[in-house]
UniProtKB/TrEMBL annotation:
Protein name: VCBS repeat-containing protein
Signal peptide (residue range): 1-25
Species per Swiss-Prot/TrEMBL record: Candidatus Desulfobia pelagia
This protein's UniProt keywords: Signal
Residue stretches in coiled coil: none
Residue span of region Disordered: 161-192
Amino acid sequence: MFKHTRIVSCLILIFFLFALNTVSASDSPQKTLAILPLKINAQKDLSYLKNGIRNMLSSRLAANTGYRISEASLVEKHAAESGTLSQPEQIQNLGEKIGADYVLTVDLTSIGTSYSLDSKVFSTDGSQPVETYYSSASNENEIIAAVDSLSKDIAARSFHKGSQARITTPTAPSVRYPENPDMPSVPSSSFQTAHPDRAFMQPGHYGQATGSPFIRPMGISGNLGFTKTQNLNYSMQGMDIGDVDGDGVDDIVIASTNKIIAYHIIGNRLQKFGEISTLVRNRIISVNLGDINNNGKAEIYVTAIDWVTPDSFGVEWQEKDFTYLFKDEKWYVKPMNIPGPGLILAGQHGGIDSPFTSGIYELDIVNSALQSKEQLPVPGDINLFDFSMADLDGDGKAEVISIDQADRLKVRQTSGKQMWKGDGRYGGSLRYIGGRSRYAQTEGPDSPLEDIDGAENISEDRIYIPSRIVVEDINNDNLPDIILNKNLSTASRLLKNLKSYPSGEIHGLVWNGIGMSELWHTRKLDGYVATYQLVKDKQNSNKAVLYVGLIMQTGWMDVFSAKESTVLIYQLDFSNQDQQAVN
């Protein structure tokens, strides 16, 4: 009788909790899951799989459940202090120390060439029975699929969660592309994606293997909704988001060829409130925001070039207009988040006989001028705009994520040792430094390589500036994710100094322990993806906004002479990942 009553009570409780979740997932406090270090049972050394499997489980379970994953270093510290963890009570006590609602244990066993994963889920308060899970792999290449199966079972059985992330459609009128008749009909949602390696074994519409030959990310099916701003009658060279005027609301700053324009974002409309121009001969190649002086307002840092000579400046909004922090500096500049030091202003000098000199430095603004400080510990063959830094694997050491001139994505240690190089092409851009001088070109293609002042050209080849590499923890697993573009073109890979990108996508990638793998990507966008930025909600870490700057129908024209741009705005919501958005 008591058992029957308890079962009925549990069913009523589950129904009640489900009803609350259906009304509003955001009303429930976010649960926390701690994943203990893997226990390995094998005659051979499998330590190299330990962190990879744990990181993949963290990413998937964060995405599939919406739960926060406890920081690995915190879990390891308390686990080491707790000693033997053989009894449920010991594991529950550990969960209380960590501050987790649930604790997950995982055993990896190898017999011959076969592998098995055994896992248990403990509720810290003891309110739920211990759940046991099992998954197997016939060889090492199938471990990802085994982890995938394990994470799905855990999310479904222990946490009553599905497997799909969603992005809610903004309330403003959305713009959509027509259905592709060659694609199968599927229910429309604003974002449909499988999280990290769950999609790896499934061929997609667009994806190709990344990080490992058996990893195949699944493309997004159906339409992807977004809001669109008004068209802008200039060629967009760059864009960034931040609170420029200090009113607590993010603004958008866009660079045209020779102007920096600041807008308030009002729904899907951009309202200009500030503007600053460069010299006509100086083309803007980079604009970035950052509150480096910590006064509550984001400064604007701009790099323009006079062919191969940098001419940078920084400005800040003061009451009704911009004031210069510095100007006419022969540095390439951009704010960067460095694991450990945090946000800094980084810079690289232009060279006498080449566009760049070796060495990238932290910069200070002293008496309206730039002064170099410490040199950044990065490989010597990369330029300032080629890379970002992040602690991808959570080991406390920064990795360098870079894009080369062939649009190949690389992950390296700061020493230069390569950890991974992708097969896909990312970061393609039409912004460049060098090439034939504009003055020489006015005389025709066979004119002498001299500029208007008679000086010889330094470089006849263009050095393309890759699109930014955004580093952000989207799925709240305490590990950074990577957001970047994939501009699509075959001809641009063949012609060194002439590129065209008639369409593009935005991709979210995650480090899976052995390489970068796809979290999601947008549907193909018709036009050149010139720039983008992702901004997390300051009040809700499960939400973010993706801004995409698009130049429409560029064809083979020079991006600096294109005439029409726009901004697409995607509202991302990962807080209730078992439900799809309603359009």
